[in-house]
Structure formats: C-alpha cells, structure tokens
Amino acid sequence: MSDGDNIPQHALERLKGLRSAGNPDGVFTSDFSVNEFLLVRKAGFEPIGLCVGSCIYHLGVQYGRWTKNEELTTISQAMYHARELAMSRMRAEAADMGADGIVGVRLEVKRLEWDEHVLEFVAIGTGVVHAQGHQGFKGVNGQPFTSDLSGQDFWTLLHAGYRPLEMVMGSCVYHVAHRGMFSAMANSMRNIELTNFSQALYDAREIAMERMQDEAHRAGAEGVVGVDLHEGNHGWGSHVIEFFAIGTAVKPIGTEIDPATIPDPQLVLSVNT
C-alpha cells in the first residue's frame, strides 16, 4: 500500500456484500449500540457498513537534549502522518461504499512486540448515508465526513442545526528536560513548583491544541465539538510524552434539511441479566 487511497482486495470483496441501492439483499454492519442505531436513523441516516483503515509505521529515532525542553519534531510528524494514512484509508472505504460520512470513529495506536519502533494505527467507524439522498452532508472537498461523535451526539448535533465536517487533530511529541542533581537535592524537602516542567507540559498541550484548531480553520469549520486531549507515551522513556488533541469540526446546516423536522427519539432500554 503506497498511499492512503489503496484498499486491499479482501476489503473490496467485503464492501461488495454490504446493503446498498444496487444491492438490496446485502447486509449492513455497524458497531452502533441499539440506542445509537435508533438515533442515527431518527436523524435521517442509514448505516451501511464498518469502515476500517490501518497503517503499520516505523518511527525514526530522535533524542532530546538532557537539560532542554523541546519538541521532537521527527516523531511528532511520524505520529501525525501515520494517523493520516489510517484515516484516509478508512475514508476511502466509506467513499467506495457510497457513504455520506462516518460516525463514531475510533482512532487507536498499538505498540507491536516485534520492534519497539513500530506502531500500528487503526481507524474504524460506521459509514452512513442520508436516507433521502441529500448531498449537502458531505465533508471537505466532497469527501465523506468523519466524526468521532457517538450516535446520540450525532443526532443532538443535527438537531441543534449543525453538521460534522471532519475529525481534526493535532499532535506534539515533547521532551521534558531532566532535573539536575544539585537542583533535585536542594528541593527534595520543599513544597515548590517545578516551573520548567510546568511550562514544558503547558507548551506541549498548546502546540497540539493549536494544530487541531488550525485544521478546523482550513476545513472551513465554525468550531470543534467533543474535543479530547490525550497524554501518552509509546515506550519512548519517562521524559518523552505525546499530547494528542482530537475533535469533530462542525458548521451550520445549510438548506439541506430543517433541523426541526428531525424526529425525537423513543427511549430504548437495554437490560443485562
């Protein structure tokens, strides 16, 4: 797979079996709960099938200077590029099945055992299509929209008069300076803020958030909802941390549909025994 648009042959065979206008005898697949399934349909959309994108990525080695707070730009770029590849492959599956968008996207990163510098990036969500064929719900450049909103939040967003454009994200892998031996000894018995560490983590979070915000601006969004800020370390050592900001960029619904016409849901109870 040389780029984000190639779909494996096995995936193409799976997509052929999904329910669509040209294949009414097919089946849809979805990771929606029963309530999510209900609310997505109440919002005027039908699920088509699960969309998956995967990328196995080797990260280059970059070391931070012992006493300096600094971004590890090589690793930041690698984490960002690998996620983009997984997302674009997921979006390509959605486009191939004729979906208007993808709801409930999960973006996962897994460290693989055979090499400490190799990570697997997986994007998965449920492709949906508007039941009445409205084309105004597409995302940027006419591609299927992507959203990490749940089925409930998706219905609520549409009911509020907004629609999702795409998932936007920002990543920053940052090296936090080590404390000097004499400084550590001098402060070992005191309650004191470690201002250089506070500033390092503050700066790294701001970089991730700013990059996510810039993606939303370039997508033409009015805002970003459901923002989540992850902090993680993928085996890089105790003084290297990734801040990853992700959310769904949204804009007001145009003339495609009157939000007031979206019906209210009926409560579905799930009982476990």
UniProtKB/TrEMBL annotation:
Family, per entry: Belongs to the UPF0145 family.
Entries under Pfam families matching the protein: YbjQ_1
Cited InterPro entries: UPF0145_dom_sf, UPF0145_YbjQ-like
Name of the protein this chain belongs to: Heavy metal-binding domain-containing protein
Organism: Labrys miyagiensis
